[in-house]
Specification:
The chain has 297 residues and is α/β, with parallel strands linked by helices. The chain contains eleven helices and eight strands. The chain has an eight-stranded parallel β-sheet with strand order 2-1-3-8-7-4-5-6, with helices on both faces. Strand 5, helix 7 and strand 6 form a beta-alpha-beta unit. It is globular and about 50 Å long.
């Protein structure tokens, strides 16, 4: 098994949405013994603490423009912290927080060389301010990463798109807004919906995802815990029925880990307020362990 120096960075941010609670996600995942579990696999693990994030109750929550500025500032800070990990050759593990944190993490992962992104999510996160019914920024990171939407989000870290659509594979998609659906269908992003999971099976999808990204030297995995069925992961901000099973999610992580190409990961949208005895936080730790080398035999 390949071992890493892993640096855990928490991002307790829920500025990208209107529902409180995911700011406590990093604590919930840490409480589920993330560091100790990864150390038992042979990794050297450093917990680097949290990126500072303002509270939505502060002035940043008043008006879309102010919240956009706050999210941009946090993601820029994330980018700077993540860039240090990339330059050192360490594995960066980011604990969200809402999914808007990935604008900063992927920007850092893509800075030195092209990166493939495997986006595991119930949602496409492909809205812009013009198409989003809610205006929530956590539904916009994929669009921002390919250079579409507000310039403040697009230019985090450095100007312009961070990845091309062909560098992104989405898995577990089952809830799209109307305009988002049309945009995504014509985007060039590889999308595996839950129907694909049902028809093809997770093993085939995981291997197809890796094959589509085979020309890229490294992979970033962005895991939204709402990709799982709410029966498996009840503690998420925006649950959607009909998601990945426990074994489907573990199999995906195991196959991605065996490729030895994953160099960074996000775990986002854990909301312990809505959880049952930290069930979702514990599952997040188990999935990270599967990605990072834990096997049945």
């Amino acid at each position: 098994m390949q071992t890493h120096t892993i640096r855990i960075i928490g991002v307790p941010m829920d500025l990208g949405q209107n529902r409180r609670g995911v700011d406590m996600g990093p604590s919930a995942v840490r409480y589920a013994n993330l560091k100790a579990v990864l150390e038992r696999l042979g990794h050297t693990v450093f917990d680097e603490g949290n990126v500072p994030v303002p509270n939505p109750e502060e002035h940043v929550a008043v008006g879309t423009g102010r919240r956009l500025k706050a999210v941009t500032a946090v993601c820029q800070h994330i980018y700077e912290r993540a860039s240090q990990c990339v330059q050192a050759g360490d594995f960066a593990l980011f604990l969200g927080g809402d999914h808007s944190i990935s604008i900063g993490t992927v920007a850092a992962a893509a800075q030195q060389e092209p990166v493939g992104v495997i986006w595991v999510d119930a949602h496409g996160d492909f809205n812009t301010r013009d198409t989003s019914p809610s205006g929530n920024i956590h539904g916009m990171p994929v669009a921002a990463l390919i250079g579409e939407g507000d310039s403040e989000l697009v230019n985090i870290g450095y100007e312009g798109a961070k990845v091309q659509p062909a560098q992104i594979v989405q898995i577990g998609i089952r809830d799209l807004d109307d305009q988002e659906r049309d945009r995504l269908a014509h985007s060039g992003i590889s999308v595996f919906t839950m129907r694909h999971v049902d028809e093809l099976g997770m093993a085939a999808i995981a291997r197809q995802a890796l094959d589509r990204l085979r020309h890229l030297p490294r992979i970033h995995v962005s895991l939204d815990m709402d990709s799982l069925d709410p029966a498996e992961a009840p503690g998420v901000g925006t649950p959607v029925p009909g998601g990945l099973s426990y074994r489907e999610a573990h199999l995906l992580m195991e196959i991605l880990g065996e490729s030895q190409r994953v160099r960074s990961m996000d775990i986002v949208e854990v909301n312990p307020i809505l959880d049952d005895r930290n069930m979702t936080g514990k599952l997040a730790v188990q999935l990270a362990a599967s990605l990072l080398g834990k096997r049945i035999l």
